[in-house]
Amino acid sequence: MTPLLSVSRLTRRFGGLMAVNGVSFDIAEGEVVGLLGPNGSGKTTALNMISGAMKPSGGEIQLRGEQIGGVSSHRIARKGIARTFQLVRVLPSLTVDENVVAALAFRGEPLWGDAARREADELLHRVGLGGRGGEAAEQLTYIDQKRVELARALAARPALLLLDEWLAGLNPTELRTGIGLIASLRDTGITILLVEHVMEAVRSLCARCVVMNAGSKIADGDTAGVLADPEVVRAYLGT
Ligand code: ADP
């Protein structure tokens, strides 16, 4: 079967630096895959290329067999890839539901008016913000802003959701809630690629992990095996 996402010999150079160096991996429909690696290993650069925020220097990216490498981010979003960012991006001057309604207006099949409000309500329920649509986005706690960002990403009805350290900065209680929320999305069948440093989250959410180090892929397989791989352990310890 054609994988949902296929990344092949993906490369990105910054001057003399190979930030991503010939990385290949596939993601099947319905998988939740962790993209791991120490700081500076190229994970965000890889996500940026997959989401269209950055052009590859080389290699290919295919979504359901269609070439999307170098395609603009808004066109990629319409083809079914949505993402969240390491630094939360909500529209602070709008209310919670206006944030989601705005995202619905910009998707491939835009929704407006009452239909958009109803869909926004449903999305807010899905991320644990049911009944809170009237609140000002800038007044929300950090985790609730992250929930809004997730609802905005889901507004595109993505086939593939890219989460860039979505769980970073949460306290232990929020972390458990956050893991539960991502698990609930996984259980609806959405395919997820997550860059994550929180190992508790990786272990409970990802059946499979891809590990990068210094721009190259060093491991790809079931999570327990990958985390026990001596090369992966060495990369994290920097020895
Ligand atoms: P990670 O997400 O794994 O921490 P990044 O993809 O952010 O790694 O960075 C990989 C490497 O590319 C790092 O050495 C980083 O300094 C470099 N890099 C990332 N973005 C840029 C950029 N826009 N310009 C120059 N160098 C960059």
SSE layout and pairings?
Layout: E1 5-14, E2 17-27, E3 32-36, H1 43-50, E4 58-63, E5 66-67, H2 73-79, E6 81-83, H3 96-105, H4 113-126, H5 142-154, E7 160-164, H6 172-187, E8 191-195, H7 199-205, E9 208-213, E10 216-222, H8 223-228, H9 230-237
Parallel strand pairs: 3-8, 3-9, 6-7, 7-8
Antiparallel strand pairs: 1-2, 1-4, 4-5, 9-10
Helix pairs in contact: 3-4, 3-5, 4-5
Bound molecules: adenosine-5'-diphosphate.
Short account of what is shown:
Helix content is 37%, strand content 25%. The protein is α/β, with parallel strands linked by helices and 239 residues long. Adenosine-5'-diphosphate binds at residues 14, 17, 19, 37, 39-45.
Q: How would you describe what is shown here?
A:
This protein has 2 domains: 5-80 and 158-237, P-loop containing nucleotide triphosphate hydrolases (Rossmann fold); 95-157, no CATH class. The protein is globular and about 50 Å long. It has 239 residues and is α/β, with parallel strands linked by helices. It has 9 helices and 10 strands. The chain has a 6-stranded mixed β-sheet with strand order 6-7-8-3-9-10, with helices on both faces. A 4-stranded antiparallel β-sheet has the order 2-1-4-5, covered by helices on one side. It has helices at residues 43-50, 73-79, 96-105, 113-126, 142-154, 172-187, 199-205, 223-228, 230-237, and strands at residues 5-14, 17-27, 32-36, 58-63, 66-67, 81-83, 160-164, 191-195, 208-213, 216-222. Adenosine-5'-diphosphate (ADP) binds at residues 14, 17, 19, 37, 39-45.
